[in-house]
Amino acid sequence: MSGQATISVMKADGTSEPFSSQKLRESLRRAGADDSTQEEIERHVSRELINGISTTDIYHHAFELLRKHKHPAAARYSLRRALVGFGPTGFPFQTFVGEVYKSRGYTVETGKMVKGRCVSHEVDVVAYNDQELVMSEVKFHNELGFKSDLKIALYVKARIDDLSHSQHFYGNKQRRLNRGSIVTNTKFTTSAIQYAECAGLEMIGWNYPAKGNLQDMIEEGRLHPLSCLTTLSLMHREALFDKGVVLCKSLGQDESLIRDLSMNSSRRIELREEIKNLCGI
Predict the structure, then answer these.
(1) Alpha-carbon distance 262 to 268, whole Å?
(2) E strand segments, the chain
(3) Which of 42, 99, 121, 240 is deepest in the core (most CB within 10 A)?
(4) How far apart are CA 183 and CA 174, in angstroms?
(5) Distance between CA 56 and CA 266 in Å, rounded?
C-alpha cells in the first residue's frame, strides 16, 4: 500500500520503526484470523495511520475490530499484552511459568529457598523429572517496553553457578542442577542476549530464543493466560489469580470455577464459548 513505508510507528520500548502491513497481517494470521479478516483490519488500520502512532494504538484498533466481530482470534491476538496482565505483583506469572513446566512433564515447586555452595537463594520455580532438575528466575514486567537487561543476566548466572556446586534433594534423590534459566514476560536487551549466548545462560522471553520462546510454548501447549479472555473482567481475573488459577483451560476443565464467578448466565455462555475457541475445551 502506497506511502506506508514512510509512516513511523513508536514501539513499546520508545524506539521507532517504519509501519509494516506485513507485520500486522502476520500477527493477525498467527492469532488465527483468516485472509479476509486480515485484509479488512489492515484496511481499517491504514486509514487511521499518522506519523508517530504507537504500536499500542495500532494493537487496540485491530483488537477492537476482532472483538467487535466476536472473532475467536481476538483472545489470541491479545496474548503478548495478556502476559502483562499478570500484574501488578507478578506472582501469578510465577505460577504461570510453573504451569508451563508442568505441561512438559515436570513436577514443580515455587518460591523455594535452596542452598548453594556459598549462600542460600530464593528460587522462583524449581522443576524436575526423572531426567533433570531445572531452576528458573522469573522476571515480571508491568509494561511491554521494559526489558530484562544485562544486570539481571549477570546476577542470575552468578546464582546458578553457586547452586550448581551443591547437591539438591528433589524427586526423592540427591541430584545436581542440570539447567538454570531466566524466564520473562517481555523481552531481553541486546547486551543481555549477547552475554547469555557467550556464558551459556538459558533465557526464555516473549520472542527469544527464535524457537522455543514463550509465545511458542503458550501456543503449542494452548497455555493461554486468563488475561487473554475478553469476557473476564479485572475483578474476575484477580479473584481467580487469588485461587492460583492462571490458565484459560483450567476454567474449561473445572466448571465450578465458572459457576463461582459473579456474572449472569448469558455472560457465562459467552465465557465458555471463548474458552472453547481458545483452548479447544
Answers:
(1) 9
(2) 8-10, 16-18, 53-54, 107-115, 120-128, 133-139, 147-148, 167-169, 174-176, 179-184, 187-188, 202-204
(3) 240
(4) 25
(5) 31
Region at 251 (left for phi over 0; alpha for psi -120 to 50; beta for the rest): alpha
Instruction: Measure the CA–CA gap between 142 and 38, rounded to whole angstroms.
Output: 29
Cα–Cα dist 49/176, whole Å: 54
Q: Indicate the residue type of 223.
A: L
Task: Read off φ and ψ for residue 137, nearest 5 degrees.
Answer: -90, 125
Q: Are strands 107-115 and 120-128 parallel, antiparallel or unpaired?
A: antiparallel
CB atoms within 10 A of CB 191: 12
Contact assessment for residue 107 and residue 171, using Cβ atoms and an 8 Å cutoff: yes
If we measure between CA atoms, which residue out of 262, 173, 264, 254 comes closest to residue 275?
254
The fold of the 91-101+108-207 domain, in CATH, is: Trna Endonuclease; Chain: A, domain 1 (3.40.1350)
Encode pLDDT of 163-215 as tens digits.
999 999 999 999 999 999 999 999 999 999 999 999 999 999 999 999 999 99
Does position 74 have pLDDT exceeding 70, yes or no? yes
Q: How is the chain split into domains, by residue range?
A: 4-74, 91-101+108-207, 224-279
SS3 271: helix
* Cβ atoms 144, 90 nearer than 8 A: no
- Reduced to 3 states, what is the DSSP secondary structure of residue 186? coil
Q: Kindly report the backbone phi and psi dihedral angles of residue 52, in degrees, each rounded to the nearest multiple of 5, phi listed first.
A: 90, 5
